[in-house]
TrEMBL record:
Domain NodB homology: 54-250
InterPro entries: Glyco_hydro/deAcase_b/a-brl, NODB_dom
GO biological process: carbohydrate metabolic process
Gene3D superfamilies listed in its UniProt record: Glycoside hydrolase/deacetylase
GO function term, MF aspect, one: hydrolase activity, acting on carbon-nitrogen (but not peptide) bonds
Keyword Hydrolase: yes
Cofactor: Co(2+)
Keywords in alphabetical order: Carbohydrate metabolism, Hydrolase, Metal-binding, Signal
Pfam hit, one: Polysacc_deac_1
Protein name: NodB homology domain-containing protein
Length: 263
């Protein structure tokens, strides 16, 4: 949900340049329009929880960033597959920037590929972390198709799942996203780590699960991999807590029961 304070917000001007968006649109919509989902885990046509009990989808927004390589590696070593909703140009420029990791210097394109190599799923969070509600069709297409190109350059596949920045959308947003072939996902456990920076408050968000029953649908959580406290304090605590509740960590595709998570 957070946007790097020093990031450019010139996306509205850039969005008027649709040549690149048109060139990507055919590939991005190859699976065809997505029908509006229904079910107990859906609100207003948007997935907000898993479709079955006993599972837990750990998700991160706004990356990649300096912590991402080692986070993906650490989760893999613990047998946990997460889902990363990433931007192309937010806290870093994925196409041009690099980072020093425990395995040496890496480009951010290599970091994105590393997510997949570590067994995690990659989803879209728009190119520049633009809130989509109220944007024109061409602006939404620019944000989604440009980001699809970034992810394709890293892994050779395009995402079919996305999360709107700040969870913000309107009915036109959903219409355009479905036309482009995307399923839309928000969350039901919100740590608000982007706002509070208070570890106790963030842990309390998880403790709403104390009221779960055996029939409670599995959860989708929201964290941001751009914060040291989230990566190095909240996530280790959350893993222990979720395991204590006998939940199984799953990727977003398993959480939702979908097979077309890449296009």
């Amino acid at each position: 949900m957070s946007k790097k304070p020093t990031s450019t917000t010139a996306g509205a001007a850039q969005a008027t340049t649709t040549t690149g968006a048109r060139s990507s649109a055919a590939a991005a919509s190859s699976v065809g329009p997505v029908d509006a989902p229904t079910g107990a885990n859906v609100q207003d046509g948007v997935y907000v929880s898993c479709n079955k009990p006993g599972v837990f989808a750990l998700t991160f927004d706004d990356g990649p960033y300096e912590f991402s390589w080692d986070l993906a590696k650490s989760l893999n070593e613990q047998g946990i597959a997460a889902t990363f909703f990433i931007n192309g140009k937010n806290w870093v420029d994925v196409l041009t920037d690099s980072v020093t990791t425990s395995d040496g210097k890496k480009t951010y394109l290599e970091v994105v590929k590393h997510y997949k190599d570590m067994g995690h799923e990659i989803a879209s969070h728009t190119y520049e972390h633009k809130e989509l509600a109220g944007l024109s069709d061409s602006e939404i297409e620019y944000q989604m198709n440009t980001q699809s190109d970034v992810i394709y350059k890293a892994i050779g596949m395009r995402p079919a799942i996305m999360r709107p920045p700040a969870g913000s959308y309107d009915q036109n947003t959903l219409k355009v996203l479905r036309k482009l072939g995307y399923s839309v996902v928000n969350w039901d456990v919100d740590t608000r780590d982007w706002a509070t920076h208070n570890l106790n408050d963030e842990e309390q968000a998880y403790k709403t699960m104390d009221k779960d029953t055996p029939s409670t649908l599995g959860h989708i959580t929201l964290e941001h991999e751009v914060y040291d406290q989230t990566v190095n304090s909240l996530v280790p605590w959350a893993i222990k807590y979720v395991k204590s509740k006998n939940y199984k960590f799953v990727t977003m595709s398993e959480c939702l029961g979908v097979t077309d998570y890449y296009q």
